[in-house]
Design brief:
Layout (H helix, E strand, L loop, with lengths): L3 H14 L4 H12 L2 H35 L1 H20 L16 H10 L2 H16 L10 H29 L3 H29 L1
Helix pairs in contact: 1-7, 2-3, 2-7, 3-5, 3-6, 3-7, 4-8
Length: 207
């Protein structure tokens, strides 16, 4: 059963990494202009940054967990956010990504880490994700056993790296159709968020 936390970490991290963000665009751009090997260097350190952000969110979540559980409006707000973000991604019109190149950052490892760590939306995502997990009786905290934490954060790392690897491979295959990737991914992510929102709303209604 302890392996469930590895699976949870992977799935939660994939949901976090699917929307087209700075790390994803950097991986796609590097794959198209250089090669997949250079792009994978970005993925490696972006995964480390994802683990750091999720760890920090878990630490913060301990402070706000009681407030979350004692206030129904917070849970309703999260359901609303899931619906809004999901609907926005699903109905968002396609725009061609134009990533900014950072000439001062020569190392792909440094680029991946910086783009991954300076990402407030991801931090907010993890705070909400831990709230949803706890609300569904999946308890996880910094006081959990070392094996549980190790497996969960390993899952977070693998989920991030595998998602960016997927972006790299897919962009290498279809080359100039990168904009189609973001369109499909946005729609899939939007549907997933809406489904999660429905599940949360149903749980609150039943309770």
């Amino acid at each position: 059963m302890i392996l469930v936390y590895l699976f949870i970490g992977v799935i939660a991290s994939i949901l976090s990494a699917l929307p087209l963000g700075a790390s994803n665009i950097a991986v796609i751009n590097t794959t198209l202009k250089q090669n997949a090997k250079q792009a994978f260097k970005i993925a490696i350190t972006a995964g480390i940054a994802e683990v750091i952000l999720s760890y920090y969110a878990l630490d913060c979540n301990q402070v706000i967990q009681k407030f979350f559980n004692d206030n129904l409006w917070v849970q309703l707000l999260i359901v609303g956010i899931l619906f809004l973000v999901g609907s926005y991604l699903f109905f968002k019109k396609q725009s061609e990504p134009k990533p900014k190149t950072r000439k001062l950052t020569q190392s792909k490892y440094a680029t991946g880490f910086l783009l991954g760590i300076v990402n407030p939306p991801v931090l907010i995502y993890w705070v909400i994700a831990f709230g949803v997990l706890h609300n569904n009786d999946i308890m996880l905290s910094l006081k959990s056993s070392a094996s549980v934490l190790f497996l969960f954060f390993l899952g977070v790392y693998l989920g991030k790296v595998l998602t960016l690897y997927f972006y790299s491979k897919l962009s290498a295959v279809i080359k100039n159709k990168v904009k189609d990737i973001s369109l499909i991914v946005n729609k899939v992510t939007g549907v997933l968020l809406i489904v999660i929102g429905f599940a949360q709303a149903a749980k609150l209604y039943i309770v």
